[in-house]
Amino acid sequence: MEDDKRARIARRIAKELPENSIVNLGIGIPTLVTDYIPEGKGILLHSENGFLGLGPAPAPGKEDPTLVNAGGQPATILPGGCCFDSSMSFAIIRGKHLDFTILGALEVDEEGNLANYTIPGKFVPGIGGAMDLSVGAKNVVIAMEHVNKNGGPKIVKKCSLPLTAAREVNLIVTDMAFIRVTPGGLVLEEITEDTTVEEVIKNTGAKLIIAEKLGRF
Amino acid sequence: MKPIRTPQQAVENIKDGASIMVGGFISCGRPVPVLEALFEKGVKNLTIISNDTEKEETGIIKLVRAGRVSKFIGSFIGMNRIMGEKMNSGELKLELSPQGTFVERIRAAGAGLGGVLTPTGLGTAIEQGKEVMTIDGRRFLLEKPLRADFAIVRAAKADKYGNAFAPGSSKNFSVAMIMAADCVILETEELVEPGELDPEKVTFPCVFVDILVPVSKLR
């Protein structure tokens, strides 16, 4: 996917984050959300390896081997941040103290089931924090491409890959659509500037309920 | 006061078949000098309990590549291809836990608890073979405690009683692991007299630490 499409997903998600919220960003498109979080909103990023207040990468030569992000790269901690061990970090996650988790996905379905950690026989890197994050966070937001590498839908009627979590996804933001997961099904609330409702439906493997007032982003 | 040892002396009692918890998140807080000594010693059939492995060919990966590790318990192995290769060849058995479950199983063992009840993993492959309990109307998975013969962790500063400080995100799994092993080996970049480490800055209380290993600073 082109950089501007990825950026649009990240920008749209950043608008959803309320003041003073605690947010965990996954790897890939979710990481880009950092660039669009406005200063002065008091939003703190949680890094599951043990701190709040994740800042940008340090300048070359300023790396501290005892401070890394969840991908293991050198990180910085912003004013207002704090450090803790893994048990407390996952207490923050699982104990419903984390407002948002932004994750990538391989598949999401109508019921809000999420598959993002393995393709059996092909890709078995492990689970990491994904299961705890998707079960524990108050809001689970998926940031991903609307279709897979073969052009097939990633939003499906029922996930075929092993689940990361059952019925936990709240919001799906892609390069085509902004979709809310509700008890009644998937509600298409917004589409991107360069697509149509018909295109979105054609590239989605699940039933979409079209919102009365459809927005654009 | 705790015995002060070299990395080689610290691993003297680690024998074939031992289970070893290793602190660290990727390379952060990883006790590499003691792991190197363990590699030189040549022990095998080890069970390594660690969240993940390093990217580089150090520490755990060196042991895995040499075929010294028969079982790995952790949450993530995607950092290095060697893990997958050894799994596929059948040399290495893997037990995966979600990261939060992994640390709480260790904490439970160290804290004298009989297990952990967590919602994480419900409705996924992690649930298979495990008991599901309903507490006050909510469903939880029963996850059992995890302990080990040894734990190897790293600190920036320790006193001779074994109180130690681990800065930034280097605390990670070590705080739980020191509670859950019979013998805890603590690497420290700085070793000071009792009183020279602020009691308010103790990440690892001395009661859990058995052997002190002074090591050189990173970089």
Q: Level of helix content of chain B?
A: 10-25%
What is the CATH topology descriptor of chain A? Glutaconate Coenzyme A-transferase
Strand order of the largest sheet of chain A: 4-3-2-1-5-8-10-11-12-13
List how many beta strands of chain B DSSP finds. Answer: 13
Give the N-to-C terminal Cα separation of chain B: 29 Å
Measured distance between first and last alpha carbons of chain A: 17 Å
Instruction: Tell me the series of helices and strands of chain A, N- to C-terminal.
Output: HEHEEEHEEEHEEEEEHE
CATH class annotation of chain A: Alpha Beta
Number of helices of chain B: 6
Q: List the uncertain runs of chain B.
A: none
Description:
Chain A has helices at residues 3-16, 29-32, 86-94, 130-136, 197-202, and strands at 22-25, 44-47, 51-55, 76-83, 100-103, 107-109, 114-115, 139-143, 155-156, 171-173, 177-182, 185-191, 208-216. Chain A has 217 residues and is of the alpha/beta class. Chain A has a single domain (3-45, 97-216), classed as Glutaconate Coenzyme A-transferase, CATH 3.40.1080. In chain A, the strands form two sheets. A ten-stranded mixed beta sheet of chain A has the order 4-3-2-1-5-8-10-11-12-13, with helices on both faces. Chain B has 219 residues and is α/β, with parallel strands linked by helices. In chain B, α2 runs parallel beside α3 (59-65). In chain B, the strands form three sheets. Chain B has a seven-stranded parallel beta sheet with strand order 4-3-2-1-8-11-13. Chain B has a three-stranded antiparallel beta sheet with strand order 5-7-6. In chain B, strands 10-9-12 form a three-stranded mixed beta sheet, with no helix packed on it. Chain A binds chain B through residues 47-51, 64-68, 72, 75, 77, 83-87, 90, 93-94, 113, 124-132, 135-136, 162-167, and chain B through 25-29, 51-52, 55, 74-79, 84, 87, 96-101, 103-104, 107, 118-126, 156, 166-176, 203, 218-219.
